[in-house]
Amino acid sequence: MSKYVGAIDQGTTSSRFIVFDRAGGIVAVDRKEHRQILPKPGWVEHDPVEIWRNVQAVVQGALAKASLAPGDLAALGITNQRETTMLWNRRTGEPVCNAIVWMDTRTDRLVAEFAKEGGKDRLRAATGLPLATYFSGLKLRWLLDEVPGARKAAEAGDLAFGTMDSWLVWNLTGGVDGGLHVTDVTNASRTQMMDLATLDWDDGILKLFDVPRACLPAIRSSSEVYGTARGMLKDVPIAGILGDQQAALFGQACLKPGEAKNTYGTGCFMLMNVGEKPAASNAGLLTTLAYKIGDSKPVYALEGSIAIAGALVQWLRDNLGLVKSASEVEALARSVEDNGDVYFVPAFSGLYAPRWNDGARGIVAGLTRFANKGHLARAALEATAYQTREVLDAMAKDSGVGVAQLRVDGGMVVNELLMQFQADLLGVPVVRPKVIETTALGAAYAAGLATGHWTSARDISDNWGVDRRWEPHMDAATRDRLFASWNKAVARSLDWAT
């Protein structure tokens, strides 16, 4: 019997393949970055061919590191950057152009156009989402309008739309030679074209967005055997698909209503399990699918999405040259005692939850001659914590449930200065699990459950364990003063772009 489950984690900045054992421990991992293509201000693209090539490389690399063969894998799970949108030709396998990344803002005019009648929340009742540049549906509409010949080819069924999960499954299962064109409910829920109640494409929204159903993938559950891989993973069942943040929720064993996690990656994403009925948000959050396991009822979540978190550290490194590597930021931030009253609002792609202001732009507020690069680094780290506080406050308002602790994961949770400040600002403990690769782990769990490698949700809960816990130490007056100053800075960033 195969002992391991593999997971492809196709993220915003890199692709990874991780092999997990039955206890959820990491056996092997390989990682490869891909280019961030920035053709215009606000435009962010990826090359899907480069990503597929990298995925193949990291799969082979991780298996080689552990001296494993495909037959050692009981199942394969896939988790992916959500909302990143692409079209490809079913007959040639070639993308019609680069993928439009989730944080890209080129659809701002379409958002404004559709919001004229009924406002930005006109589709919330059906989809749980406001009209925003974030989601896939309007990105697809832009491709159909702007790529010569795309609309006619899509209507004829010659083009396939998908987020990265669909692209990978299609290639893994044969591509032009019978590749499967599917997605799961979590990724479909991020297109703004799926009805949360029916879990099917909404014909009224497809008509509104002028999107032909012929180019859309079939919507499946998050945990079932979709098909078997060919080529490098020959005969391995592909059995789990989850958008990256839902995968992290699942991997963090947030399986009961009221349990929440926050992932600190390129962006920052907090999800709370709300159970088998979708919870409407009145505080600027998203209502989304959390997961659907096989034939079981779907589970829903409230989500607060923050566009820029770890990406701000990358910006300090790549655009300003303030540090040579992201790992140096914590030491630089520790070189000063506090933020020096400097606040960094990283609204590079507007502001997401809970404000949803597409016109916001990044600012640094509170600068004096006293400020130095240490204060700037500290303000950059603290920006993630302030945004998380905003989201958690909105989540408590919507759900009526106060979070007793916040489970955290993602690349930034190794930054202990940030984690302590986060606990201080929230006033609740912040808990890091033993395995912080919870995004890939969640996809592995979904795949393993579908193939019997794990038998129940209890296996997932039993595997979860605490690595580090940060208790809040900041007094309430300081916390309130800092948060008030942050809100002053945010107010000055709003509606900068018109």
Provide a descriptive summary of the structure in words:
- It is a single chain.
- Helices cover 34% and strands 21% of the residues.
- It has 16 helices and 21 strands.
- The strands form six sheets. The protein has a seven-stranded mixed β-sheet. It has a six-stranded mixed β-sheet with strand order 3-2-1-5-12-11, with helices on both faces.
- Helix 9 crosses helix 14, helix 10 runs antiparallel to helix 12 and helix 12 packs across helix 13.
- The termini are far apart.
Spatial strand order of the main sheet: 15-16-14-13-19-20-21
Helix proportion: 25-40%
- Percentage of residues in DSSP E strands: 15-25%
Helix/sheet category: alpha/beta
Instruction: Flag low-confidence runs.
Output: none
Cα radius of gyration in angstroms: 21 Å
Q: What characteristic shape results from the CA principal axes?
A: globular
DSSP summary, beta strand count: 21
How far apart are the first and last residues' alpha carbons, in Å?
Answer: 60 Å
Give the count of helical stretches: 16
Q: Report mean pLDDT, rounded to a whole number.
A: 93
Please summarize the sheet with the most strands: 7 strands, mixed
Can you give keywords for this protein?
about 500 residues; alpha/beta; seven-stranded mixed β-sheet; six-stranded mixed β-sheet; 16 helices; 21 strands; about 20% strand
In short:
The protein is of the alpha/beta class and 498 residues long.
Write the layout of secondary structure elements.
Elements: E1 4-10, E2 14-20, E3 26-33, E4 45-46, H1 48-65, E5 73-80, E6 86-89, E7 99-100, H2 108-115, H3 124-127, H4 136-146, H5 150-155, E8 159-162, H6 164-172, E9 182-184, H7 185-188, H8 203-209, E10 218-220, E11 223-228, E12 237-243, H9 244-251, E13 260-264, E14 268-275, E15 286-291, E16 299-306, H10 310-318, H11 329-334, E17 343-345, E18 363-365, H12 373-399, E19 406-409, H13 416-426, E20 430-433, H14 438-451, H15 457-463, E21 466-470, H16 476-493
Parallel strand pairs: 1-5, 5-12, 9-10, 13-19, 19-20
Antiparallel strand pairs: 1-2, 2-3, 4-7, 6-8, 11-12, 13-14, 14-16, 15-16, 17-18, 20-21
Helix pairs in contact: 9-14, 10-12, 12-13
